[in-house]
Write a structure and sequence with these properties.
With about 190 residues, this protein is mainly beta. It has two domains: about 70 residues, Sandwich (Immunoglobulin-like), CATH 2.60.40.10; about 80 residues, Sandwich (Immunoglobulin-like), CATH 2.60.40. The protein is built from two helices and 13 strands. A four-stranded antiparallel sheet has the order 10-9-12-13, with no helix packed on it. A three-stranded antiparallel sheet has the order 1-2-4, with no helix packed on it. The chain is flat. The termini are far apart.
């Protein structure tokens, strides 16, 4: 019976080490660029974690990447379990670079986190330089909480929103550009 209990503990450690949230690869902004990156978040296991990336890096997140596949092997402090995860970093097509950049610029980097949120939620997306867009946040009844018109100058747009004075429930975050409308659902607890 003791052997069975130990096995259950090892299986639990492996299971929790594999639970990942918000891990994402960010594509290069132009053909031949080296500005892609991977944002890795680990939940479970026993911290601290060690990271062994296929490009030799040992940090949790890696930056200044060219297009390609990147694989990371993650160990928790107990070194009992290891997991391996691969990410693809892409780049726009050479012949259609500007069009690809405009089409992919919002969808490749549009996040709302944490989700579910308690008080503060962060909106993060990448817009090509000079892109005009509107940011809207509204509740499930269609009541608009935020409506901003922006022109993006530096690529990454990051905005935190305070929901502490709002009721708990479902909200929607919407980005509207000349090319597309993107909507993400947000839960506020």
């Amino acid at each position: 019976m003791k052997h069975l209990t130990l096995s259950a503990i090892l299986i639990s450690l492996c299971f929790f080490a594999t639970a990942q949230t918000k891990s994402k690869a960010y594509n290069c902004s132009a053909y031949g660029a080296s500005d892609g990156w991977i944002d890795l978040h680990i939940v479970g296991g026993v911290a601290p974690y060690t990271f062994e990336w296929s490009n030799g890096a040992t940090d949790e997140d890696i930056h200044n990447l060219t297009s390609g596949r990147y694989t990371v092997t993650i160990h928790d402090a107990n070194k009992i379990c290891k997991i391996e995860v691969s990410f693809d970093v892409a780049q726009p097509d050479l012949n259609n670079s500007e069009q690809s950049k405009r089409q992919a610029s919002f969808t490749s980097r549009f996040e709302v986190y944490p989700n579910p949120a308690e008080d503060i939620a962060t909106i993060n997306f990448y817009a090509y330089e000079g892109a005009a867009f509107s940011l809207r946040v509204y509740d499930i009844n269609g009541r608009i909480l935020l409506n901003e018109n922006q022109i993006q100058n530096n690529g990454d747009y990051i905005r935190s929103i305070d929901f502490s004075n709002q009721p708990k429930g479902f909200y929607f975050v919407e980005v509207v550009s000349e090319k597309e409308t993107l909507t993400k659902r947000l839960i506020v607890q």
